[in-house]
What we know:
Strand order of the largest sheet: 4-6-5-10-11-9-7-8
Shape: globular
Largest sheet: 8 strands, mixed
Protein name: Glutamyl-tRNA(Gln) amidotransferase subunit A
CATH class of the domain at 2-229: Alpha Beta
Radius of gyration: 21 Å
Helix content: 25-40%
Strand content: 5-15%
Structural class: alpha/beta
Oligomer: single chain
Subunit structure: Heterotrimer of A, B and C subunits.
Number of strands: 11
CATH architecture of the domain at 2-229: Alpha-Beta Complex
Keywords: ATP-binding, Ligase, Nucleotide-binding, Protein biosynthesis, Transferase
Organism: Limibacillus halophilus
CATH topology of the domain at 2-229: Amidase signature (AS) enzymes
Low-confidence stretches: none
Bound molecules: glutamine
Order of helices and strands: HEHEHEHEHEEHEHEHHHHEHHEEH
CATH superfamily of the domain at 2-229: Amidase signature (AS) domain
Amino acid sequence: TAAHVKAIEGAGELNAFITQTPEKALTMADASDERRRKGDVGKMEGLPIAIKDLFCTQGVLTTAGSHILDGFKPTYESSVTANLWDAGAVMLGKLNLDEFAMGSANITSYYGNVRNPWTPEGAEKPLVPGGSSGGSAAAVAARIALAATGTDTGGSIRQPASLCGIVGLKPTYGRCSRWGTVAFASSLDQAGPMTRSVRDAAIMLGAMAGHDPKDSTSVNVPVPDYEAALTGDIRGLRIGVPAEYRMEGMPEEIERLWQEGITWLKAAGAEIVDISLPHTKYALPTYYIVAPAEASSNLARYDGVRYGLRVEGESLDEMYENTRGEGFGAEVKRRVLIGTYVLSAGYYDAYYNKARQVRTLILRDFQDAYQKVDAILTPTAPSAAFAVGENMDDPVQMYLNDIFTVPVNLAGLPGISVPAGLSAGGLPLGLQIIGRAFDEETLLRVAGVLE
Ligand code: GLN
């Protein structure tokens, strides 16, 4: 813990942390030593980790990367972080992220952008770490935290993991409790581990997961021993390769990496099966209706009364307007506008209801595929890390980053990104494995072979 605290001090230019908690870390580490002396050793005893600043941490500033939560210190602890502390983990601090987890480059944070530690020395502009869990990915990649929590609504664990060369796992919807995690799109949000290795992801997921009566969508199924799933043996497993993910204009290096992944899995004894997920092309438009709709409803609570920032006005309405006008950044405002539009009377059926129906079709595509295969292999993201400034004036271009990850959230399935190779420019690229609902074990086993 002391070594990590020191390493964080020396890595300020990454801007990975919004809040560092060195005293808390050292106190927690002492308590952990004490438990160890008594032979009381948890699954993550003494391991120094950091937390995406979307998880409420009792008495510790929680910002969601937004100005509107200025000074918000929750009086409660999120269930996921509580589980981690119960397992013996030690908190180093709170990590930077896109504002309310909306973004793919960690450039919408009120606390500034995060630098990808893979940025070449002397580069004119830093590379982005991906997003929204950009601080988490950068901290783990730079070795200033042993592991980090992330959240994934449309790719926010897997895409930054791919861009920073680490492992990122989005569990099945309902596997980890959402209680005490700042909500973005409640039917899509899921917490998960971001780690250096597949084994670390297995251990950390085991600590984070579990039924929680405080989250009605948390599912009451046993949490398996994920580490035991890492047998290294994938002989006879059927791995699907979806035709629709072979997108037009996909960079050749992504296509090549995918092909290599197929070859490796085949060599390890898996059977490769061509599959079709016909509604894939509707996933991104569907997501960008469902997610903003839910966000606009979830973000209604930031009104200057209950949390954080208040900007006074002549009347109550004006206070609301001033607070939200100053408190939210441009991307959040864009989402709230889209969300309220698609939910408004007259448009609800045309957009929101239609999107919900298409979402079911996307889920059925996966269900059909899982009649024939045990897991699916795809690229994680359509490109390696790009420089700050690229893709940035066109929100739609930015939304394309999520093209391979979003369908997984819409279907509520587990997905993992594993570092699998380097781009022509020497930057990390990840491959994604998508599993059956609540079958994180197969996911981890296949990922362990790809790693
Ligand atoms: N990049 C996507 C978005 O901006 C996904 C974000 C996420 O998974 N939290 O909505």
